[in-house]
Amino acid sequence: MATMPSPSSPGVSARMSKQRRRDTGPEVSIRKLLHASGLRYRVAWSIPGMKRRSIDIAFTRAKVAIFVDGCFWHSCPEHATRPAVNDTWWSEKLAKNVARDMATNEHLKQAGWRVIRIWEHEDPSRAVERIVEAVTRAQAEC
C-alpha cells in the first residue's frame, strides 16, 4: 500500500483522529445489555497468536468472539462509503481491513471459537439475542 496521504483538510484530520477504536457507542450499548442479561465477558481481549488484534467482546470459556464493526472501516455492504479524496489509498486501506477481518475470523474458527460480527447500525437488542443464543449453545456443548 502506498504511503498514507496528507489529510485533505485540518477538519478531516481532526475528525479522523477522534474516531474511537474501542468503547464505541454501539459496542457500549451491547455490553450494557449483555451485562444486564447476566452474562460476563472480557473487553478488548488479545487474540492468541495474532499480534495487535483483539476481540471486542470475548466469552473466553465459551469461546465466542464478538466484533462490533463500523460501517465505514469494515465496508458494510449496506452503508459503506468511500472518501472522494485519495480514493485509491482509501480503497486499498478498506480492502485490507476486510481481508484482515476474514483472516481473524478464520484464525479464531481454527482455534475452536464461534465468531459473531455485528454492524454498528444493527439494533443492539437483536444483536444481544444472537449473542446470548450463541453463548448458551456454546456453554451447553462444553
Automatic annotation (TrEMBL):
The keyword Hydrolase applies. This is DNA mismatch endonuclease (Patch repair protein). InterPro entries: DNA_mismatch_endonuc_vsr, Restrct_endonuc-II-like. Residues 1-11 have a biased composition (Polar residues). It comes from the Bacteria. Keywords: DNA damage, DNA repair, Endonuclease, Hydrolase, Nuclease. Belongs to the Vsr family. Its EC number is 3.1.-.-. The lineage of its organism: Bacteria, Bacillati, Actinomycetota, Actinomycetes, Streptosporangiales. Pfam families: Vsr. GO terms for molecular function: endonuclease activity; hydrolase activity. The keyword Nucleotide-binding does not apply. Residues 1-27 are annotated as: Disordered. It comes from Sphaerisporangium rubeum.
